[in-house]
């Protein structure tokens, strides 16, 4: 179809007029779709926040629903820089005075010095047998001509798993070196020794320069240095003298492992207190309260209505009036106030632990009452919190329908996402309709403009015809 130049005949700005008409037609529907999209997006975000808060609470519920949490024991030291400890579930409550007079030590020895530093070579070679007390470790084979450095490297490579390491210390002035061996095994009777054998397996040979015999206080080996002797730890518990081959002492107190870190001053023992791990339980209970309060505050924020003035409509949050949120809060609050067990259990409701509900629905902890309840009724906690009938399982069962696959919130999200898709579809339909409207209006205005052109031409011809008639007198006025 032929078109005219924009308003050539009529003088009208047809493009602008048509664009304005199309925009006016489009605006109400576009505004409606934008409002719907904005509200739906806000609801999706709000439900996501709610779902996250529920999931955080459920995670804490699972932690507080573990019986082993209430079976843990703690061992608290008055000075962990001297003595620290840990306790297993087999421990018993008690307080102990611990003094450490000596720590367990390992063996560290050095061979007699050899000339030539680390490059000193042993022409005939042979083997070295390093022993840790009465235990002979795998022999180190030494090739003919091997250097002291090569022997060191062979020891480090082959005896690493046995806890033996080697190094070389050299006197810069004399360029003489000593092979130094260190053991990681503490305890009396675990001193290191070295015995050399020649290539034929006989004791001696040029490797005998590295021999380290058992320490003899009356007749120490010439040139050999016994830097540190392996010794037992010596300590006392409540005045009872004890020894241990290691500084990590298990079995001295049933269910308790001691870690002797440093010696104590005479007459100033470390106090070790073994008790139920009340601090761990208290921490987990507080995490539960925090997670529950987070859920309550999130729900309150998402359903809030704020007044902004007498002449203005109130500002409403994304999930105002949402039945899912209302049902969730009611269910959770009802579960918290249910009584568990009987009067003999000591703890039947959260209030017995000093946990009460405030006006805004959040929980508040009375720390002193919680501490008193844990001290007096600790054994009641397991049945109150854990098991199929425990508070944590019951509350989790009420929350699960909202967060599980195909649960309440997931179905809500699915419906809202469909709404967003519907908005996109409606926008596409609107765009096509506006294109059609624009094309129709342009055709109509162009047709009008062409008609105006035709009428102008007709008028011009008529005027010319009239002007050429005989006797026609033109008026100048």
Q: Quote the CATH topology of the largest domain.
A: f41 fragment of flagellin, N-terminal domain
Any idea of the CATH class of the largest domain?
Mainly Alpha
CATH architecture of the largest domain: Up-down Bundle
Read across the widest sheet, the strand sequence of neighbours is 1-19-3-15-16
Provide structural commentary:
The chain is elongated. The strands form seven sheets. A five-stranded antiparallel beta sheet has the order 1-19-3-15-16, with no helix packed on it. With 477 residues, the chain is an alpha+beta fold. It contains eight helices and 23 strands. The protein folds into three domains: 1-72 and 278-306 and 314-459, f41 fragment of flagellin, N-terminal domain (Up-down Bundle), CATH 1.20.1330; 73-104 and 232-276, no CATH class; 106-228, no CATH class.
Protein topology:
Elements: H1 14-64, E1 73-77, E2 83-87, E3 94-102, E4 106-110, E5 114-115, E6 121-122, E7 126-132, E8 135-136, E9 140-142, E10 146-147, H2 148-158, E11 164-171, E12 176-186, E13 192-197, E14 225-228, E15 233-237, E16 240-244, E17 248-253, E18 256-260, E19 270-276, H3 278-302, E20 305-306, E21 315-316, H4 323-336, E22 355-357, E23 363-365, H5 367-377, H6 381-385, H7 391-403, H8 408-467
Antiparallel strand pairs: 1-19, 2-18, 3-15, 3-19, 4-12, 4-14, 5-12, 6-10, 7-8, 7-9, 7-13, 11-12, 15-16, 17-18, 20-21, 22-23
Helix pairs in contact: 1-3, 1-7, 1-8, 4-7
């Amino acid at each position: 179809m032929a078109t005219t130049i924009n308003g050539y005949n009529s003088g009208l700005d047809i493009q602008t007029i048509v664009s304005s008409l199309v925009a006016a037609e489009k605006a109400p529907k576009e505004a409606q779709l934008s409002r719907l999209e904005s509200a739906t997006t806000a609801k999706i975000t709000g439900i996501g926040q709610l779902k996250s808060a529920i999931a955080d609470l459920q995670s804490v519920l699972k932690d507080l629903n573990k019986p082993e949490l209430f079976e843990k024991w703690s061992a608290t030291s008055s000075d962990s820089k001297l003595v620290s400890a840990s306790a297993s579930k087999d421990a018993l409550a008690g307080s102990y005075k611990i003094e450490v007079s000596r720590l367990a030590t390992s063996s560290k020895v050095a061979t007699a010095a050899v000339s030539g530093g680390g490059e000193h070579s042993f022409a005939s070679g042979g083997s070295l047998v390093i022993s840790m007390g009465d235990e002979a470790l795998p022999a180190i084979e030494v090739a003919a001509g091997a250097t002291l450095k090569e022997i060191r490297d062979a020891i480090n490579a082959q005896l690493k798993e046995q806890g033996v390491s080697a190094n070389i210390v050299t006197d810069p002035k004399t360029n003489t070196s000593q092979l130094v061996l260190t053991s990681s095994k503490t305890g009396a009777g675990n001193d290191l020794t070295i015995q050399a054998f020649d290539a034929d397996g006989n004791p001696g040979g040029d490797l005998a320069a590295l021999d380290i015999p058992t320490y003899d206080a009356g007749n120490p080996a010439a040139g050999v240095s016994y830097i540190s002797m392996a010794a037992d730890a010596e300590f006392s518990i409540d005045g009872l003298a004890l020894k241990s081959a290691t500084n990590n002492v298990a079995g001295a107190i049933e269910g308790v492992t001691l870690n002797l870190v440093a010696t104590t001053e005479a007459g100033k023992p470390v106090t070790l207190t073994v008790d139920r791990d009340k601090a761990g339980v208290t921490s987990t209970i507080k995490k539960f309260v925090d997670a529950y309060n987070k859920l309550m505050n999130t729900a309150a924020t998402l359903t809030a209505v704020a007044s902004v003035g007498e002449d203005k409509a109130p500002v409403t949050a994304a999930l105002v009036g949402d039945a899912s949120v209302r049902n969730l809060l009611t269910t959770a609050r009802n579960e918290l106030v249910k009584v568990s067990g009987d009067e003999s259990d000591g703890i039947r409701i959260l209030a017995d632990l000093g946990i009460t509900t405030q006006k805004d629905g959040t929980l508040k902890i009375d720390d002193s009452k919680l501490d008193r309840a844990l001290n007096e009724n600790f054994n009641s906690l397991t049945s109150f919190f854990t098991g199929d009938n425990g508070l944590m399982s019951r509350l989790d069962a009420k929350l699960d329908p909202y967060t599980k696959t195909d649960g309440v919130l997931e179905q809500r999200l699915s419906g809202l996402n469909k709404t967003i898709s519907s908005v996109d579809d409606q926008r596409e339909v609107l765009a096509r309709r506006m294109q059609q409207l624009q094309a129709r209006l342009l055709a109509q205005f162009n047709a009008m403009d062409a008609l105006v052109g035709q009428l102008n031409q007709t008028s011009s011809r008529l005027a010319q015809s009239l002007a050429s008639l005989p006797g026609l007198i033109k008026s100048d006025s």
